[in-house]
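Job type: complex structure
Entries:
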Amino acid sequence: MDFDTIIQVLDSTVRLATPLLLACLAGLYSERSGIFDIGLEGKMLAAAFFSAALAAITGSVWLGLLAGIAASLTLSLLHGLASITFRGNQLISGVAINFLAAGMTVLIAQDWFQQGGRTPALIGAGRFTPVELPLAQTLSGVPVLGPVYAELISGHSILVYVAFLAVPATWWLLFRTRFGLRLRAVGENPAAVDTAGVSVIGLRYAAVMICGVLCGIAGAYLATALQAGFVKDMTAGRGFIALAALIFAKWRPWQAMWACLLFGLLQAIALRYQNIDLGGISIPVQAMDALPYILTVVILAGFVGKAIPPRAGGEPYVKER
Amino acid sequence: MNASATTPPAIELKGISKAFGPVQANRDISLSVAPGTIHGIIGENGAGKSTLMSILYGFYRADAGEIWINGQRTEIHDSQDAIAAGIGMVFQHFKLVENFTVLENIILGAEGGGLLRPSLARARRTLEELSREYGLDVDPDALIEEIGVGMQQRVEILKSLYRHADILILDEPTGVLTPAEADQLFRILRRLREEGKTIILITHKLREIMDVTDTVSVMRRGQMTATVRTAETNPEQLAELMVGRKVLLRVDKAPARPGRPVLEIEGLRVRDDKGVERVKGIDLTVRAGEILGIAGVAGNGQSELLEVLGGMRPGAGTIRLNGAALPLHGRGADGQARRAAGIAHVPEDRQREGLIMEFHAWENVAFGYHHDPAYQRNALLMDNAAIRADTERKIEKFDIRPADPWLSARNFSGGNQQKIVVAREIERNPDLLLVGQPTRGVDIGAIEFIHKQIVALRDAGRAVLLVSVELEEILSLADRIAVMFDGRIMGERLPQETDEKELGLLMAGMSGEAA
């Protein structure tokens, strides 16, 4: 494998890791506040559709992004209502959101565009285009570092940079600010937050809303940057892989980034090497496609060690004496 | 100590009422607490003490009544209002974030700025001053999960002081403390009183009231039945005010007449779930017609001892019941086999091990005895009607209230839940009764009853092994006391020949020889 191939695979890794990372950080906020969210998948899917649809209709990817975020926020609000206000079961609410998004997106897509449940292919300003970082062309001739900068670091869509900047931002917010202290506390022991005179409900809604925004960006990225338009079930389990990454990372932002890059790498390898010939035995393409998912299971089962979720996770808060 | 005519009371409650559905938890309660005093509130479980304090701390809104703080009419809608009014509360179950440091817990909700670093630095200085002023030493950087309960309680007190609380409410503060830790807490409370703080101490332990309070109010069934000066009352009078009738605080029992050994334990070793050895080779004998009490601070192997005897955990060594060895692991070492052998077990944690809280009382009465032929209709079906009839008999005999076999275990009070478990086990007339913490969270009236039942079983010539962290209970109920420390028996004593002080030393691991 030559240097160029490695750069290409890593470049692909970054692009594939981006939606995972956004969704993973989204889940991190929600779960750190004590609200389990298996509806990441559904929120991403809804955001993917509405961003692509609005971008297709208006021709503006930015309006598309806003629509995607709005769609995801709406589902977040639904999850918040069910699990915070009405103290419902968070898993059931998440499952419902996934079903709702899976069915609704295709239905509306068919109604609006009559293209078999997809949106028209996005062109021009309907898509996020690569951002050329300063001096990328000039430096590309420098050995090793040049291609790394020009190919790997430069030339991604703006949302990729947003995703990776969200990692230090999340770390800072979580561990260096008052909001972060309270957010972590409410996921561990909401009664402590409540008796300290801080609103448990307010904090949890804030976390769920942040989760909605990040899932919205993730979905919009899928449909308007990674690909050019929405197709049925295009999230393909990324919401669940993001959850796996979150557990793998033990609910910590930097570790979440590395976990998502690992899963991104697996996907990139599977994409690039569709058929591997091992001296007469060829590994079928389906096996390669399944690889990231299989490894998800293996990693979760074998390599995580003891992952302790936020202690109040999944439990609706009921005031007690 | 007397509030003079010019200083208004620190707290004055006027006609507070609160109902939860049909249950009147507080009925027209009035209370006045002078500043700089320790005021006790005593009452049985369910008397409404915690509800009243929750109203004062803004957890519930009163249906009627007024709260006056330092002579000011104060509306308390939530904890924020209570904190602003200078009220701090130390709950029975601490409200601490386990994986946060002491300092982080103290500033939570009172950070005083958006960024943590300056807040933490400021809090560290304030904490040092508070620690010095009140003699409350804590390590600000220790994680809560790594410090003991006594220390955690200090953190709770410091949390209130950090928020400038002048009025401190403590709800059952000694429930989780060793006698020594409780004494230390009382020293802290006296110190706080000297510094002018007003303290409300909620408890059901008469001894604490007598030890530390200046005045005491008694609650019964949602009403304030009396407020008296502590110096002018005595435990018997307070108990009577609490229960509404005369109560025997001592257990009234004839001297034991021990017979043949029923349970013989030799070299028993038990490991806990993490593989740590918790019982490190003990020898014990319990005879027919005697109650052997195991005293000790929680976590010194008593729980594991009960579990291995009850068939809930494997062990190594020898256990003989009526001379026949019992298997300690594998087949025949389960609860079913132990019951068949004649061992009944009232487990330490009735809510987790003694009952299924969502099930009806009558279903709970059958647990562990499902194979009783009296409960079978035929080879296939159980005779639920027979179980319910049996439950009704037990409800009547043990005065379990409400007398409804269809009620879920959850809906009984702690005392009545425990009566269900005790009735189920004692009524089997076992050769050996294992009892763990029989009166934890149980009100005085029910304690008296449960103690009587245990003594009656003993008088019928049965053996009883009692494990309790309440020294008073051990001293009054047991015929012989063995003290456990770090998985070993530190010594055996006769209750009439020892006292709390000597037992306390043994419980702390001091050798019994010198004592």
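Summary: Chain B touches chain A at residues 50-51, 54, 57, 59, 78-80, 82-83, 89, 91, 93, 95-100, 104-105, 107-111, 113-117, 119, 159 (CB under 8 Å). Chain B has a mean pLDDT of 89.
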